[in-house]
Please model this.
Amino acid sequence: MTSSPIEETPRQLQALVAYPREDLDRELKGWLDLDDGENAASLMKAVLALSNHGGGFVLIGFTEKLGTWVEDAAGRPADLMMYEQDRINGLVASYAEPVFHCEVHHVVHPQTGVAYPVVVVPAGRVPIRAKRDSPEMRQVRINNYYVRLPGPKSETPRSGADWDRLLRRCTLNDRDALLDDIRQLLGGGQLAASQPPPSTLDRVDAWAESSLERWARLVAERGVADVYEHGTATYAYLINATFSQPSQQELIRVLERSKGPETGWPMWLVLHGDRTGGPQPHTGAVEAILAGGTVFNDPSHSDYWRADPTGRFFLLRGFEEDDEAEGRASGTVFDFLLPVWRCAEALLHASRVADQLGVPEATITFRASWTGLEGRALLSLWERRFMDGSRRAREDAVVSHVEVSADSISPNLAAILQQLLAPLYAVFDFFQMPLSVVEEELARFRSPR
Model:
């Protein structure tokens, strides 16, 4: 049994955008600003109805003129980042009960070469209802069921016959899936398994990569790439839990309340004012780039951060080792203590945000990365520790992950950091950071200053 009425092969998806039309199993919409709550709810209303219908497609970027569907050229955005799969499924998770997973493809028109988002909606095995109102209660109402009706349109069932069709369709979907499993068993095969959802590591990697793409565009626009030319560190994490998603304004307040006291330039710093690089909305998330014409211009104060109400956070920063300093050329050294401090700060930030969102027991999937390492000498910039600089990085980039519960981060921080940082130190001629050094640095990190 397929998850939608049509097998979503690339050729068939291209046929949808090449010959756009509405039907009971497909709905067309213009370019929707998903930052607008009612626009997002309009899309979710169609998705809920299509799932109850037995699956289908939502095509975005089309408008009807004189009875014909054509490209909505006037409203086309500069990029399609607003229509990322994670973003769409975040909306599904906030509106659908039970939750299901949609696929989102950016399908290129075979003649024009222009891409359009296509949301592939699976068939529901039980009736899907709305679990919340849309912001102005114009599109979606809590506890309503939506179906596809002639027109075509997405509406609540209007008659007993509409309800009969919905229940019969879900029963048949469930029966077909059960029969498929039985056939597999009788044929000596294994139970048919649905495609597993992306792992949390895949999801945090995808979030980090999409954030890096966004950062690269902003850096190019502002002409500040040189501040990052010798390398960067990034910190990304997911909060894996069910919670009431904050608005963008509420998310900014969560970040302000989650600011740690350990350093003078905290991560996910919220500044206010036109010239400070204060937070801005973008594709449902909040972002800030603190580089070029802001408070500081050195690498270690040149941050780009991104925060998403679904529980995704990203921060990029240049290296302190590359700040202007007498007798030290940028890109040549790497301090072996700074990763302890910076990763500790980012992990504690994740714990505080989870607590602010009301899910202190949430699982945190954390990712750190470093670029521009090759050839750097490992040493200490401070006299309290000695490292002779004989170890040099043999690789240019490192990515490392840990997955821990938010409430276990603070009491187990030293052990978590030793695990997280081991791949980084290993590229410096297999250096191993002693746990005792991590513990001593954390004591200094946490001490009031």
